[in-house]
Amino acid sequence: MTSYTLNTIHKIVKSIDRSTDLSTALNNLVQGIHDALHVDVCSLYLSDNTSDMNILMATHGLNMEAVGKVEISYSEGLVGLVTQTGETVNIENAPSHPRFKYIPEAGEDPYFSFLGVPINHHGEHLAVLVVQQESARRFGDQEIAFLTTLAAMIAGNIAFAKARGLIEELLSGTKTSGGQFMGIAGAPGITIGEGVVLYDPVDLLSVPNRYSTNPEREETQFRAAIEKAVIELQNVSQLYENKLPEADRLLFDAYALIASDKELIKANIKRIHEGNWAPGALRETIEEYAQQFENMDNEYMRERANDMLDIGNRILGYLQSEADFDRDFPDKVILIGENLGPLDLSKVPGDKLVGIVSGHGSGYSHVAILAHALNIPAVLGFSGQIPLSKLDGNKLIIDGYTGQLIVAPSEPELQAYEETIASEAELRKDLTQLNDKPAETLDGYRIRLYTNMGLLTRVTHLIDVATEGIGLYRTELPFMVKDNFPSEEEQYTIYREIIEAYAPRPVTLRTLDAGGDKVLPYFKFKEPNPFLGWRGIRVTLDHPEIMLGQLRAMLRASKGYENLKILLPMISNLDELDRSIRFIHRAHDQVTAKGVKIKFPQIGAMIEVPSAVYQIKQIAKRVDFVSVGTNDLIQYLLAIDRNNELVAKLFDPLHPAFLMALSDITKAAKKYNKHLSICGEAAGDPLLTILLIALGVDSLSLSAGDLLRVKSVIRSFTYEDALKLWKRVKKYETAEPTRKVLSLELEKRGLGGLLRAGK
Ligand code: PEP
Ligand code: MG
């Protein structure tokens, strides 16, 4: 496809994105295709899977009166053929085709050639795009490629309109309420709040409209931002005085002139006084200017649309430094962003943040893990399905158990969810009765339940569950939030606080596991596959000074206590393990050199890479305990990116291959008499718990919110029951029968409610 063609496609997509209502969007679509392909007719038929009817929703070329009225069954006509086969249909002489259906009110008479392309979204058929021509001819490959590409690019918009009921609205002429969208369960819980979009600071087009109560403040900030942007552009021009020819430098002068253009400023301020906040008003003004350039015939002038966006982005940058993100927050914020990371959550005051919606990610992304630790429901994976910036200011319900997001809920929806929230609270109250009871099966088999910590910087005393210790302390955060490595003293203070707070209960500190999606701001290089790259122990072994500093801080922090365990992440070969153990000895020698007494800690290896499963015996021989990192082990074993919403449904802790790996790991741990712990999100899965009892796991490390649910499962089974179930399910070749059998067992014991509350 030529870049000209791609540009045209992008132009059409943009015109759809910018449309304020569905009817305009669809008209822009058919008009754009008509103009680009020089066809006589372009139409869009929406496929209604409940009535099995294709409905004409927009056309350029057919009778406009027929829009919304012409409905053709899936079993009829060439449009129906596209729907039924899911394939492109390209026909030279349509009227002579056996499936051709003549629809008099559409005014189709003179058109012979027909090309129909399906619009599919995540496996669901949504609509058919049709182009027709009077002359009898077969459409060419380029035309097919054009329509297929466009169909893939606009599928998300159509799915969004459909889910929000906008199509019904358009057909019936009445207003319906918001819509329901299915994403991925990120962190459990149900919450109701108001959407606040965290937009990309360098992408003006992602800025939402937001109502402002203080236009004077917005205007002042806008004027200050313009002034700074103009000075910056003038400075750039001067900077290049001897380096660039004058003709090229003129570009920056031209930019400065545009940025200070009186009309542009006036239009922007008018929007501000009409109620929009400054960044939203800026986006609208710049878009309007850019659109004018885009509509020009001359290609050079069309390119200037990009210059407008560039200028807009610069002004936006200054606007952001003028304006604080944390102003005017509603009381219950549901934070929304295309790609939220763990640190973004701190941009909203903690007492106001009630929920999280992210375009990308899955339940195993670190943002979800953090939300889980904070007990904040999260739903993820809406990218391409919903233009998230349009959710700003909307009332939202999120269901972190199922992944559902409800936009602008109706009264009955709100009522139903409020009831569910109340019964959830009841369930939690019931569970708190287990707080002081041991995690023990009915026949006395004991499992230690520890909690995860560490994506939060400080010890949280808010956790009201009686944990038996810290099974996994992720030490990454202090390394991620600063512009340099935290000093040994800073680390010492953090670790000491935890070790003291939990002693004599064990505290497992994991050495730095940076890399993957946990980026250190001072390592700014880009890796093509960060999860297969410089991650975890690979980073620290390459930096003995960091590794030793961290180990010394941990060991010193444990002075006077005997509860420190050190855990090594991402071990993928024995050399890494041996070298790490030598580092721990070296650090211990250093901190005890002057006669200081510090107990040598227990050392553990994380089993989270398939090679470690195959070498589990050799690993077990070398350490005091092993800890299975289920998030990464499933990711690497099943080749499923833990952050990728497109494959999140495949990420399954009941996959037979993963269960076999667990079984091998437990056998080796028993053989060498080593403790075995399971951590990662799957450790909190009530179904997997049953099998972990059977496998003889000693301890689990969980998000605090999962602890009592898992305890209630352990206390409802005998070891013998669990073993029988394991013997049965280990024969299954897929995960589904295992899920059915185990779910039924929970329901039999009156624990069905936990399933809803499980991932
Ligand atoms: C894991 O991989 O399961 C784990 C506990 O480590 P993290 O989630 O920090 O990668
Ligand atoms: Mg891991």
| Distinct ligand kinds | phosphoenolpyruvate, magnesium ion
The CATH homologous superfamily of the largest domain? Phosphoenolpyruvate-binding domains
Low-confidence stretches are 457-464
- Judged by helices, strands and strand pairing, the structural class is alpha/beta
> What is the CATH class of the largest domain?
Alpha Beta
Strand order of the largest sheet: 7-14-13-9-10-11-12-8
The proportion of residues in beta strands is 15-25%
Instruction: Just name the CATH architecture of the largest domain.
Output: Alpha-Beta Barrel
What does this protein look like?
By secondary structure, the protein is α/β, with parallel strands linked by helices. The protein folds into four domains: 3-172, 2-Layer Sandwich (Beta-Lactamase); 180-199 and 338-427, Glucose Oxidase, domain 1, CATH 3.50.30; 204-322, Enzyme I, Chain A, domain 2 (Orthogonal Bundle); 433-754, Alpha-Beta Barrel (TIM Barrel). The chain is 45% helix and 16% strand. An eight-stranded mixed sheet has the order 7-14-13-9-10-11-12-8. Strands 15-16-17-18-19-20-21-22 form an eight-stranded parallel barrel, surrounded by six helices. α14 (488-502) runs parallel beside α16. The radius of gyration is 30 Å and the shape is globular. The two termini are 43 Å apart. The model is unreliable at 457-464 (pLDDT under 50). The chain binds phosphoenolpyruvate and magnesium ion.
